[in-house]
Automatic annotation (TrEMBL), chains A, B:
<protein>
    <submittedName>
        <fullName>3-deoxy-7-phosphoheptulonate synthase</fullName>
    </submittedName>
</protein>
<feature type="domain" description="Chorismate mutase">
    <location>
        <begin position="1"/>
        <end position="90"/>
    </location>
</feature>
<feature type="coiled-coil region">
    <location>
        <begin position="6"/>
        <end position="33"/>
    </location>
</feature>
Length: 96, 96
């Protein structure tokens, strides 16, 4: 296979990276909205049961090539980042 | 806002999780293909310059709410998982 074909594969990876970026940020906006709702209701932001349910759904739908353990690892980082975003929003709200 | 609306937001998050799962695994298949091409060409799997270029493109397109540092952190985990997959394929190829 020539480098032209390698470049084409890489171009496809770049496109997928941008799709992931888009969905990750849209997901983050939803998580911020959920944070605001919970804030009003006085509910805890971090809910391990909900996190477990999300991971179970993902593992149920995972057809690879990534192993469930890898999927779990990556998504836990996404969840953690979302929680940090909610905490930042909370801090900013306190400063208003 | 009622819990019905909270449930709807969560349903949307679940849908986005599944979209992310789908793209992450499709990306992983491409990365495996790239690994096979590099193997044939005798090129190194890990290329820091290529990783840097991917991150730069992502940061260029990042409109938040996640900060560039968070996007970089999440994607580095995705890259690392892809590299591990290539290494596993290599090990399996040696055993054939």
């Amino acid at each position: 296979m020539s480098n032209v074909e390698l470049d084409q594969l890489r171009k496809q990876v770049d496109e997928m990276n941008l799709q992931l970026l888009d969905i990750i940020n849209k997901r983050a906006e939803l998580v911020q909205e959920i944070g605001r709702v919970k804030e009003k209701q006085g509910v805890n932001r971090y809910e391990p049961v909900r996190e477990r349910a999300m991971l179970d759904l993902l593992k149920e739908h995972n057809n690879g090539p990534f192993l469930n353990s890898t999927i779990e690892h990556i998504f836990k980082e996404v969840f953690k980042a979302g929680l940090e975003l909610q905490k930042d929003d909370h801090r900013k709200a306190l400063l208003v």
